[in-house]
Amino acid sequence: MTVYERDLGTPAVSAETQVSLTIDGMPITVPEGTSIMRAAALVNAAIPKLCATDSLEAFGSCRLCLVEIEGRPGTPASCTTPCQEGMTVNTQTPRLDKLRKGVMELYISDHPLDCLTCSANGDCELQDMAGAVGLRQVRYSDEGENHLSAGKDESNPYFTFDASKCIVCSRCVRACSEVQGTFALTIAGRGFGSEVSTAKDTDFLASDCVSCGACVQACPTATLQEKSVIDRGVPSRKVKTTCAYCGVGCSFTAELRGDELVRMVPDKQGGANAGHSCVKGRFAWGYANHEDRITEPMIRDSIDDEWRVVGWEEAIQFAADRLKKIQADHGIDAIGGITSSRCTNEEVYVVQKMVRAAFGTNNVDTCARVCHSPTGYGLKQTFGTSAGTQDFASVQDANAILVIGANPTDAHPVFGSRMKRRLREGAELIVIDPRAIDLVRSPHIGAQHHLQLRPGTNVAVVNAMAHVVVTEGWVAEEFVSERCDVESFRAWERFIALPENSPETLEETTGVPAAAVREAAETYAKAGNGAIYYGLGVTEHSQGSTMVMAMANLAMATGNIGRPGVGVNPLRGQNNVQGSCDMGSFPHEFAGYRHVSDDSARALFDSAWGVSLRGEPGMRIPNMLDAAVAGKFRGLYVQGEDIAQSDPNIHHVEAALKAMDCVIVQDLFLNETARFAHIFLPGTSFLEKDGTFTNAERRINRVRPVVPPLSGMSEWGVTCAISEAMGYPMPYADAAEIMDEIAALTPTFAGVSFALLDEVGSVQWPCNGEAPMGTPVMHEQRFVRGEGQFVTTPYVPTDERSTRRYPLLLTTGRILSQYNVGAQTRRTENTVWHAEDILDIHAADAEARGVADGDWIEISSRVGSTRMRARLSDEIPAGVVYTTFHHPVSGTNVITTDNSDWATNCPEYKVTAVEVRPSMGAGL
Amino acid sequence: MSGVLEQDARLVVMANQIANNVPVGGEVPQQVADHIGKFWTGAMRADLKRIAEHSSDQLRQEVVAAVALLA
Q: What digits encode the pLDDT tens for the residues A838-876?
């Protein structure tokens, strides 16, 4: 049985003009520019090929795909020859057979004849093509010069490079360039001496390779092969599902032998990723079967006791009894829950329903509190709903791309590659970031404008850009008058035109030269299509919400909303941040972003759930923690989040957790939070889940069970069992039934069902009667709130400032190979790239403190200190230091403070005043 | 600092921060009251009222005025 996708040889072409031709007597009409190879494949006249694949532009090197065209001399390559009107093509003739056989004979003469023991046996295009052309013998001896003894490069933890099997088709090199955009590979040498090489002539691990695996996927032989395939054999069945890492939400085919996962292959039909992946999605799934997985429930009376393994029934009853006792002793609102953006929509929905209906409180929050809650607030105020405006494909139509506080190539790498492709095509790039992220300068890409601002001055910079737009007369007056609330625009226009918002006035505050701000503003405003992409470098500030609104103002003022190529786009950190917010995880909102005080919305849920819901907001996560320290909040259900590592001011978090009588952790591993838990409920990895994730472009994708849950229970099933034990049954037959309820109660999801998703692949909400197949671009005719609302956004400096005692500003972020608190990626081979958190420090700051590259340092803030190694870096300016938060040993959030966004309490991770000193080692 | 005092201190910081950041142009106390009414629990609002009664010097004037507007 084959599990492989059909390959049409060259990419699809979009053109208004169609051409009709005949191939092997069969008529076909295709868009002008389509290759003969692709057209032939469409009429099932597949032409032999080796260097062609439909994920890459035609190359025309292997000489196997030759065809004859009536009226034309020679035998042109079908991959590089476009179809023309009236053409008559023959793909099978005696002359072509002879030519192809001769070409194949030459390939095979320099290729190991070990098919039976080769790891690609059954999954090798060279083997297939030898069969397709009828090659029966090789007349050339193997005594001549050849590459059969060429060595292997096994430095990469996930794949091998066996040069003896390479046919130098360049598919790997082209995949690295065209698809990934890294340009880590090249063809070294000439003629017979040609060979695939890393661009720096090192092994793969030491090269610029980012291990996205595009080269492995493109390789037609066993030259580049997953080690998991070498170890386990070629797969025999497949299941389509969705990645559980970042907010791109890539679609994958999980390929298995029996119940053993062999590899993850990105789905060409995936709406978010179109066949591409990153190192995490493709390779870093080993954590799912890691020995640290806890697969049986555990309980203990006190956090000082040892864990006791129990059955599900006992654990669930234990949890319910404790929660009920807390409510009896301390009141209904003494307990609550936290949902997870790593869980499915269905799992999240039942947790918030349990909290509201079974617990009887609105004390439910989600880990989006600490990442994109300002997006929810800011976009709802201005546009009317909490969602990015575009689909990912929209970037292909952008002429100017404004990246603010995001690092797409590391944190959203598959979208980063898509963005890089557009930049290579000529779109202009503006980066607003204290760090010189990869996009600022990488192969064939350079930012036209890098506004390297001081941490904490985002609002000042974007206000200054808007000031330039208004005072230079670049406002899109027609868009504003037709689509926006004009009164609010006039008020904003007066505010933003004030001298206090000029680039010149703000230059000293932001550290960005006024001229640079003016140039960037002009680029964005006059681009025609200007698109904003942003990340946690926007939201995780004391003015995170203000900044989101400032960007929305800028986009509306320049008319950059409501069509492909424009928009305001949050790059969500985790796979289901959008979904967890959509599902009613915030304490003030039901699913679909309807406030709990909205009588009509509450009546809808009251009726459906058979309860009387509370009409006032519950506590946010930081409110819960503060109340716990005060002794008022005593029981917490934590679904798939590690607040004792991920949340700021860890000492405060730990004090809160210690003060509680019942902490329930539902997770894959005994994480840091579990140290304070009384009940541990084993969770399910994404390979065991059945449900949906909603990515950063509002795309709802199916997550299908690849293997059964190791714990024997679905996560939503566990939640429902606790709810029932609390006295409120939630009897769902399956996850599809939960989605049906979501759809029935949430207008933007009204048309969503598992059946629809299985039929069409994915849809982007709103998906309802008005948009039965979803909505790729929002606000096309009108904003969700009707007219776009401008909001004045005064710049207010954060209270967190550098001082004589703490003279440096720390900002934090993620790197490519690790993911958030590292619970998953630290349990994979990805640690080879990043085994510990490291502090990036400018050479001048390091020298002033006697710190050399690689030294241990102690970094301290007003709330705590930790130690890690230092790396001298010119990616950050003097006065700023940077690190990641992937490792609990260094525990970066020991030093981040409880400063937070004024509107949402999203922590200000991006600005912490610190001092750095040399240290003798890791120990404190 | 006790947990209750710590919680009170946080509420003071949050309320003052809201007053300092609401959009310009509107009445600040009303905007603060609206925001707190929309996002704070009843218990937090009650605590803020208590703080405003006994320790109003910790709060910005606009917050004190906003408390009077809270339901």
A: 999 999 999 999 999 999 999 999 999 999 999 999 999
Structure token pair of residue B32: 């603060």
For A813-822, the pLDDT digits (tens) are 989 999 988 8
| Sequence-separated (6 or more) residues with CB below 8 Å from residue B66 | B15, B19, B28, B29, B30, B32, B33, B36
Nearest alpha carbon to residue A330 among A338, A322, A318: A322
Mean pLDDT confidence for A583-608: 97
Asked whether the beta carbons of A85 and A31 are under 8 A apart, the reply is: no
**What's the fold here for domain A808-918?**
Barwin-like endoglucanases (2.40.40)
Q: Which residues of A touch B (CB under 8 A)?
A: 333, 362, 491, 495, 542-543, 546, 587-588, 595, 597, 616-620, 622-623, 626-632, 659, 791-794, 796, 898, 902-905
A126-142 in b/e form (b: 16+ CB < 10 A) is: bbebbebbebeebeeee
Q: Determine the pLDDT at residue A28.
A: 97
For residue A186, give the amino acid letter: T
Q: How does pLDDT run across A376-426, given as a tens digit for each residue?
A: 999 999 999 989 999 999 999 999 999 999 999 999 999 999 999 999 999
ipTM score for this prediction? 0.97
Mean pLDDT of chain A: 95
pLDDT at residue A142, as a whole number: 73
Strands, DSSP E only, in A640-689? 662-667, 679-682
**Fold adopted by A382-570:** Dimethylsulfoxide Reductase; domain 2 (3.40.228)
Break chain B into its structural domains and give their ranges: 3-69
Instruction: Select A1-92's CATH number: 3.10.20.740, 2.60.40.1930, 3.40.190.10, 3.40.50.300.
Output: 3.10.20.740
Report the gap between the CA of B61 and the closest CA in chain A (Å). 17
